[in-house]
Amino acid sequence: MMREIIERASEDEDLSIALERAIESYMDSRVRVLSRYPYITELAKEVRRIKELSIERIEELIREAKDSMEENRMNVHIAEDAEKAREIVGDLVGTGKIVVKTKSITSDEINLRKFLQGRGNEVWETDLGELIVQWLDSKPMHFITPSINIRREKVAELIRRNIGENVDKDDIPGMTYAVRRFLRKKFIDAHVGISGANVIAANTGSIFIITNEGNGRLCTSLPEKHIVLAGVEKIVPSLHDAFKVSDVIMKYAGYSAASYLSVISGPSKTGDIEKKVVFGAHGPKEVDVVLLDNGRLRASRDERLREALYCLRCGSCQYLCPVFRLVGGYWGGDAYVGGIGILWNMIIGNYEEAKAQSLFCLGCHECELVCPMGIKTADIIREIKAEYMREMGLD
Amino acid sequence: MKDIISIIKENEKRYLNPLGLDKGTIVRWAKGMDLVRSETVFYTGGLYQMVPYIEKFASIMEKMYGISSTTIGIARLLSRAKSLASLVPVGNTERYNKIIRNIFTVLRTRINELGYLWEDDIYSGALYYDLGLNRTFESHIKVVSDIMRRNNVKKVITIDPHTNFVLRELMPKYTDFDVEVLHYTEVLSDLSIKADGYVLHEPCYMARWYNLSDKLCSILNGVKKPKTSGTYTNCCGGPIESLFPKIAKRIANNRLRELRKISENVLVSCPICLANLSRAGGANIVDVGEVIL
């Protein structure tokens, strides 16, 4: 079945054109950004060391981050697995609410949108690419560009069908503004905003969120309640470290600097009337942080899979992988796609799928070459293949 | 998939290579040549010799995929055949034997005592490693290292990037035998090959290990490069050809589309790239070994 899906994807002309357009554009941006900021390759090496040390001390950093966040009046919840995380977020949201979300692969990992919808909530993805994925009832096809597989013609059709605005297929700004108008009301009416985190500083309990569209700021500031769902591997020791990680993520995603870097360290508050602190001045009254394990702590002790916890999710390896260039996110897994997706599926316990998908890896090592963290994805996948061959009784 | 792995393993057991080439087929390139035994050896690993068989095997698998009973039937036929030689006419192998002869001829002008191991010129085991057949690879590479030791080999000159990688990178890790391994482009740095009109497809294992691609480019005069080249060269898809020939072919198509923007004449330097890009079709794929003289 999996082989059929991948072979069918390889024959899809629309997919091929969409991927070619997006990848060409990324390649040009990457070359431009990396040559304009030559310091970034050295900074990437430093960030690798920061991530290595962070994963080494992961349990200690979780405790430190929790303490710092609680000090800042954030509520912290530790979820050992996907089910527990859904339960926590589900209880925090309740039912009959309007929920706006930023793009979050971790929320895709636990299938959060559908879970909340199933509890009678109206949930909206507010990243344009993720909204396209939501309308298609599909899955994200890339870490940074979830709708990388969709051509503009299809996007125009989706907007016409879902918003009712008659947009032109060649008018990409027109399509973008139609979505802006549509989502504006959702932001205003939303009871809850859900975001992920690109990086978390343990010493200050600060959540870093990188976006270009500005949806991240609206999701995390307009609703009364903000829920952060983040994997525990996102925690680094200090605020200073977190800025370094953010810079590397942005550059390797192909941007000089993303339009928005939000640093959230607590609920909105004011003390302007007689120094009496009141929460929820303009932004959220409550901030809840759900730190998800779901196999990450086990992986931190696994010499092989630990590498994948260093992943910054910049998507470089996906753009440049020849298999991904052919079939996009149809290869890898559900939330985590491409070669790095195979490693992440092993982390979150989708062993069988990960092992079967590993056979499609070419072992060309281009992923390792372009990864700012130098993750040895191809070598690890080869070991996963070996495990599969042994288990199948073939070696 | 299980059938294909079974064929590969059965062939390893009988012929010490995944496609079941017999020793006569592997050493045919040297027929009539006066080759000595020496401490410095020319090692083919049989990979160029395999190209017509890889093409044949992949095309059978591609056609038969989806008709499971036929696939199994073909698989059994292949595994029972005395060797794959019967499926590929001898005439079709000459092009690849000539590539080997050409490279050897040029090398012999630089190395006085360049020897050959004849029947001991066996496959490196690269595919087993790539497929994750660790035990098969480990036992195979021990055979290779035993051969090297028995023949008192001190230096190996390889002619393809996969054999080079296995002997240079993996053999010291998996056996207690370490030997100096060089790719032929490292020995021929003073060469100047006329390559005007060609676009170069650099193989992954030359571009990303030991700067072999730089050595290759330095001896090719006038060759052009596509947008993704050098360290960032794009794979031809060949490594998954044995399991997923359709996907491998489409990856090759993608790569060829990029290469053909520069030229219809594509220069390669790897038997796997030669096989997979040729199978995709639509361009004139030529190995460096064909223009080296």
TrEMBL record, chain A:
Q: Carries keyword Cell inner membrane?
A: no
| This protein's UniProt keywords | 4Fe-4S, Electron transport, Iron, Iron-sulfur, Metal-binding, Repeat, Transport
Q: Where is the 4Fe-4S ferredoxin-type domain?
A: 351-381
Is Phosphoprotein set as a keyword in this record?
no
Per the UniProt entry, what are the Gene Ontology biological process annotations, in alphabetical order? lactate metabolic process
User: Care to name a GO molecular-function term for this sequence?
Assistant: 4 iron, 4 sulfur cluster binding
Its protein name is Lactate utilization protein
In its UniProt entry, the species of origin is given as Candidatus Methanodesulfokora washburnensis
From TrEMBL, chain B:
Q: Which PANTHER family match?
A: HETERODISULFIDE REDUCTASE RELATED PROTEIN (PTHR43255:SF2), IRON-SULFUR-BINDING OXIDOREDUCTASE FADF-RELATED-RELATED (PTHR43255)
Q: Which residues form the Cysteine-rich domain?
A: 199-277
| Pfam families to which the protein is assigned, alphabetical | CCG
Question: InterPro entries given for it?
Answer: Cys_rich_dom, HdrC_iron-sulfur_subunit
Please state what the protein is called.
Answer: (Fe-S)-binding protein
The protein's superkingdom reads Archaea
Name the source organism.
Answer: Candidatus Methanodesulfokora washburnensis
Recorded GO CC terms:
plasma membrane
GO molecular function per UniProt: oxidoreductase activity
